[in-house]
Design brief:
The complex is a heterodimer of chains A (476) and B (435). Chain A folds into three domains: 3-54, no CATH class; 78-333, Type I PLP-dependent aspartate aminotransferase-like (Major domain) (Aspartate Aminotransferase, domain 2); 335-451, Alpha-Beta Complex (Aspartate Aminotransferase, domain 1), CATH 3.90.1150. Chain A has 17 helices and 13 strands. Chain A has helices spanning 43-55, 77-83, 86-89, 101-118, 130-148, 165-172, 190-196, 219-228, 249-252, 261-264, 283-286, 320-356, 379-385, 389-398, 426-445, 447-451, 464-469, and strands at residues 122-124, 155-159, 176-180, 201-206, 232-236, 256-258, 279-281, 293-297, 300-304, 361-362, 374-377, 405-406, 415-418. In chain A, the strands form three sheets. A seven-stranded mixed β-sheet of chain A has the order 1-7-6-5-4-2-3, sandwiched between helices. In chain A, strand 4, helix 8 and strand 5 (232-236) form a beta-alpha-beta unit. Chain A starts with 42 loop residues before the first helix and ends in a 7-residue tail after the last helix. In chain B, the strands form four sheets. Chain B has a seven-stranded mixed β-sheet with strand order 2-8-7-6-5-3-4, sandwiched between helices. Chain B has a four-stranded antiparallel β-sheet with strand order 11-12-15-14, covered by helices on one side. The N and C termini of chain B lie far apart (57 Å). Classes of the chains: A alpha/beta (476), B alpha/beta (435). Chains A and B meet through helix 1, helix 2, helix 3, helix 4 and helix 5 of A and helix 1, helix 2, helix 3, helix 4 and helix 5 of B.
């Protein structure tokens, strides 16, 4: 039952203090005709209602969540405590700079840390999510070419294994998108790349490790091909977790990066947001970063705005409390903890992959080692038993494991993409391995049972086709 | 150093062995040797206690005011404890986007309730499950209206500066932005009519506007309807409890900043962009949308829907690149609206109105120049000739955060239910020294 169905006229949860001043009355021509239809419930009803909803949801605090490309690592409670300090959440964004030196110091310090981790020269914390970071970075690239390129650069090159946001952001930024095929090792095919790069190329968007969890070995050659023809190289930070503190995008030849603080830097995903998508860039792009920038003069911090900037991509300065949590995380791990975290993320992924490969087919490079994530192709299993990637995913729900990312990347049939992250223990991974091996047996012995999964969830396989064809988008 | 990995050395050794690797670095076999980074030039890790000390010290360098008379896009409202208690539940906070409906019904139901409440508040047909903030919502709305023939986006002069800047960024490359000229701090209908043309995609105005005044949005809506031009309204959600709704004013798309609905000031974020439209526009709407359907056994079920609009399905043909949104903020707003309820939200709106009008009239009585731009909601402008900075400084000494400085003379004030009559009396006394 929704909250609207629990409404009773006259019930109230909160009383608002009556002002001790005269009532002001507008002429009725300014006023709405009917009251907004909002719930009327007592506090206890409200508390039970939403507490019960919490019981119908699962987060990292509840279950293993190996959702590939989403980096569902543990979200430290310490960072929530920091974000709940009044000195951070009770300050107005338009207070004088002298009043908010602590907040500006947080922004400045986080920018400095992210510069060092990515190997970039400048950072903006303004983009509100990863996709907006992509968009903002592309606007930087556009501004740069407008000023420096002799030819119009209207095309963005994207590998066929890329996240869907890459081509969508390029389109939103007004670019034409060219897809480049992967080679037999699931990396960028250099010959194909040479065919599409030209003097109309604005940039190549790439994530490394790739969406298959494999390190793009040819990265320096790729950078040279693009740079030689005047294009720029864009780094999608979705997959930074296995290389933070180990390999830096700036050293690989990237000119601009976006980061997902809600992935790599452990801020909670909140059921889909808020995230934060800072961008970092090399000197050649820095003057185009969004306004305003935090600058340090002596021991004081200020906001500065620049004419050459692309402007703003949202109100104020970004998702500040998300940035704050990320800084607390970076300061906690420090110079040793960050690379150690990356390495253990890689260890966990390899351990999981290695054990699943006894039955399932994984996408591998020649070294057989993956980075933070790996992709299983269940094509053979489906041929043999009829049990699909979706069926296996739904069987995992019965094991109280959040399913991996399904059917992505698009270049792998029946793909399941696992990203265990560094915060999971060997015991949790062993449980997941056993669960997956049991499901493998089940697929052969009782495929019907798998088609029918999940058996222990509160609902089973909602009809998405009808939902989209006859949309019901609110309670009436 | 605190870490969040549970590995013992024994675990690491056993796992490496299982992977046929002798060290962690072996796992990076695919990385060219010359790419490995030097040790990061950042401080060593710290313990929890050290981190708390460090951040408490940083927090103490920010001034938290007792009385806040500043709005301008970020509003200080009462947040009932029940809102924080429920919205901080770990099941909500630590979940991902509800891709797996079977494991996420609780979250999907909240977004469905959110969409319903926002639609009811604005009397619009469809709401998405949130975008980043009010400014990006307005920019996305402008993009929705642009097509091959209609590329001109007309915006009122009296909109939030950040929103104007964001619209300009987004529209760049797709069309052009024209800012209406005005004289008296509100949309000038004659100027607007002059600017309308066959290539006008939409008109955007804010209600109440940046300076607090209530626009004659219905009149604008009537004119645009006649010309077949889309009308986009940016509204304050608290004001919507009492003011004419976007539906009544003829809006095709209504958006706004949802921060007043239960989110603290937080130095500007995370906030909440809400976005609604008429039924006919729904397939152009960006962002996540939750729909109701049935499951395999005929039970009610909630899912992410109309995904054919979205990046992960359509890639370069997608209408939106939004992936992460402001889900937890939408969830917070839902619980806030449920807690305040039908009467409570009106009480908040009316308290804002009563207090701001008391404040303005007391200022006038004390000979402070209050700019008359017609009816206003909870913000208004004063003129204290070349003394505006001094006014704010004097207030600060009394632990009052004054209004937003517009220039050397003008200050934009905001009064919410968080202030008392005695706070306002004190502020009036101080401000009147500069009248």
């Amino acid at each position: 039952m929704l909250i609207f169905e629990k409404t009773k006229k006259g019930r109230k949860c909160v009383d608002i203090k009556k002002p001790e001043v005269e009532k002001y009355n507008f002429d009725s021509s300014f006023l709405r005709e009917n009251d907004a239809n909002l719930p009327e419930a007592a506090e206890i009803d409200l508390v039970r209602h939403y507490s019960n909803y919490a019981g119908e949801a699962k987060g990292v605090d509840n279950v293993f969540y190996p959702l590939g490309s989403c980096t569902m690592k543990y979200n430290p409670k310490l960072n929530e405590e920091v974000a709940s300090l009044k000195g951070f959440n009770a300050i107005h964004p338009l207070q004088d700079e002298v009043d908010v030196q602590g907040a500006l110091e947080v922004m400045y310090t986080l920018s400095e840390r992210l510069k060092e981790i990515t190997g970039m020269d400048a950072v903006s914390l303004q983009p509100f999510a990863g996709a907006q970071g992509e968009y903002s970075a592309l606007k930087l690239i556009e501004a740069y070419h407008k000023e420096n390129s002799k030819t119009p650069r209207t095309k963005i090159i994207v590998p066929d294994s890329a996240h869907g946001t890459n081509p969508a952001s390029a389109r939103l930024a007004g670019y034409e998108v060219l897809n480049v095929k992967s080679n037999s090792e699931y990396g960028v095919d250099l010959d194909e790349l040479k065919k599409v790069v030209g003097d109309d190329t604005a940039a190549l968007m790439l994530t490394n490790p790739t969406t298959l969890g494999l390190f793009e070995k040819n990265i320096k050659k790729i950078a040279k091909i693009v740079h030689d023809l005047g294009g720029l190289l864009y780094y999608d930070g979705a997959n930074l977790n296995p290389i933070m503190g180990v390999v830096r995008p700036g050293d690989m030849g990237f000119d601009v990066v976006h980061l997902n603080l809600h992935k790599t830097f452990s801020t909670p995903h909140g059921g889909g947001g808020p995230g934060s998508g800072p961008i970092g860039c090399k000197e050649l792009l820095s003057k185009y970063l969004p306004n305003p920038k935090v600058v340090k003069v002596g021991n004081e911090y200020f906001f500065n705005s620049y004419e050459s900037s692309i402007g703003k991509v949202g109100s104020f300065y970004g998702n500040f409390l998300v940035c704050l949590r990320a800084l607390a995380y970076i300061e906690t791990l420090g110079s040793d903890g960050i690379p150690q975290s990356a390495k253990l993320a890689v260890l966990n992924a390899n351990y999981l992959k290695h054990n699943l490969e006894t039955k399932y087919k994984a996408i591998n490079s020649k070294s057989k080692y993956c980075m933070h994530e790996f992709v299983l192709s269940l094509e053979d299993l489906k041929k043999e038993t009829g049990v699909s990637g979706m069926d296996v995913a739904k069987c995992l729900i019965d094991k109280n494991i959040h399913p991996p990312t399904m059917y992505f990347p698009l270049i792998v049939q029946e793909a399941l993409m696992f990203e265990p992250t560094e915060t999971e223990s060997k015991e949790t991974l062993d449980y997941a391995i056993n669960s997956m091996l049991e499901i493998y047996e089940l697929a052969h012995s009782n495929p019907e049972y798998c088609h029918d999964a999940p058996h222990n969830a509160i609902i089973k396989r909602p009809d998405e086709t009808t939902a989209a064809r006859n949309p019901i988008l609110k309670h009436i | 150093m605190s870490t969040y990995f549970p590995h013992t050395q024994k675990d690491i050794d056993e796992m490496l062995k299982a992977c046929n690797a002798s060290s962690l670095d072996d796992l990076y076999a695919d990385v060219p040797k010359d790419l490995f980074a030097k040790k990061l030039n950042i401080p060593e890790g710290k313990t929890e206690q050290e981190i708390l000390d460090q951040f408490e010290e940083l927090a103490s360098k920010n001034v938290v005011y007792k009385t806040i008379l500043k709005g301008a896009g970020s509003y200080h409202h009462y947040i009932p404890p029940v809102v924080k208690a429920l919205s901080s539940k770990a099941e909500f906070v630590t979940a991902y986007t509800p891709y797996q409906a079977e494991m996420s019904q609780g979250i999907l139901k909240i977004f469905f309730e959110y969409q319903t409440m926002i639609c009811n508040l604005l009397e619009m047909d469809v709401s998405n499950a949130s975008v980043y903030n009010g400014s990006s919502a307005a920019a996305e709305a402008a993009i929705m209206c642009i097509d091959r023939k209609r590329k001109k986006v007309i915006v009122a002069n009296e909109i939030k500066p950040d929103t104007l800047k964001t619209i300009k960024t987004y529209v760049d490359g797709h069309g052009e932005v024209v800012v209406l000229e005005t004289e008296d701090g509100k949309v000038d209908i004659q100027n607007l009519e002059k600017e309308l043309s066959d290539d006008t995609a939409c008109v955007y105005l804010e209600q109440p506007n940046y300076f607090g005044s209530i626009e004659d949005a219905k009149k604008v809506g009537d004119i645009l309807k006649e010309k077949g031009i889309k009308f986009v309204m940016g509204v304050n959600p608290i004001a919507m409890a009492i003011l004419k709704t976007p539906r009544e004013c003829g809006a095709d798309i209504a958006v706004g900043e949802g921060q007043p609905l239960g989110m603290p000031l937080s130095f500007g974020g995370p906030y909440l962009g809400f976005m609604t439209c008429l039924e006919k526009e729904v397939r152009k709407m960006p962002g996540r949308i939750v729909g109701k359907t049935k499951d395999a056994e005929g039970n009610d079920a909630y899912v992410l829907t109309l995904q054919a609009r979205e990046q992960h399905i359509r890639r370069e043909r997608a209408l939106s690149n939004i992936c992460s949104n402001q889900a937890l903020c939408a969830l917070t707003a839902t619980i806030y609206l449920a807690a305040l309820g039908k009467e409570g939200l009106k009480d908040v709106a009316n308290a804002c109105v009563d207090l701001s009008h008391y404040f303005a009239s007391e200022l006038k009585k004390a000979n402070v120049c209050v700019v008359d731009k017609g009816e206003f909601f909870h913000e208004f402008v004063t003129i204290t000739k070349s003394r505006a900075r001094d006014v704010l400084k004097a207030l600060k000494e009394e632990n009052i955060l004054g209004g937003h400085l517009l220039d050397n003379d003008e200050i934009l004030w905001c009064t919410t239910e968080m202030v008392d009559k005695k706070d306002l009396d004190k502020a009036v006394e101080i401000i009147s020294r500069f009248a």
